[in-house]
Amino acid sequence: MRVSLMMVVLLLFVACGSRPQPKETTPYGQKLLLSDSIARFGGADTIRFGQMHEGEIAEKPLQLVNEGKTPLVIRTVERTCGCTTLEYENQPLMPGERRQITLRFDARGEWGWQLKLLRLYLNDGQEPLRLYVEADIE
Questions:
Q1: Confidence band (pLDDT; 50, 70, 90) for 125?
Q2: Would 105 be classed as within a structural domain?
Q3: DSSP-assigned letter for residue 83
Q4: Does residue 4 lie within any of the structural domains?
Q5: Cα separation values, 15 from 11, 94, 122, Å
Q6: What tens digit of pLDDT does each residue of 52-106 get?
Q7: Quick one: residue 74, left, alpha or beta (phi over 0 = left, psi -120 to 50 = alpha)?
Q8: The sheet that has 129-137: what strands, in order across it?
Q9: Distances in Å between the alpha carbon of 103 and those of 7, 22, 48, 60, 88?
Q10: What is the predicted pLDDT for the residue at 28?
Q11: Which residue, among 99, 95, 89, has the nearest Cα to 71 in the 3D structure?
Q12: Number of domain units in the chain
């Protein structure tokens, strides 16, 4: 009897604790932390695609995170190679806000170790955020 009562209490405890908990959503992709200083004076980061095959087209999601006190806008993007493409919204990114962008690397006609450069000009900054895109093409 005592064992049965303990089993019932245990089952009630387990059943009450098994309610679904809200899931914390984690944004996909590497985070690019943007501050007011980076928007004004520039910065750099590296996006690594790793091993790829010649002819492969790969995409990487990235998360822009505005850690500054002012809204940020990607004014323009310059690229050193037509093999890289950046998909983004040209809307203000408010302080504390996150936004997903997509970087695409097209390995057609490429081989060996590759290092490409994208320059993101933010707001009225003089220097860009430099994104180095790295891949090793077989």
A1: confident
A2: yes
A3: T
A4: no
A5: 6, 43, 52
A6: 999 999 999 999 999 999 999 999 999 999 999 999 998 999 999 999 999 999 9
A7: beta
A8: 43-52, 129-137, 112-122, 74-79
A9: 55, 30, 11, 5, 9
A10: 72
A11: 95
A12: 1
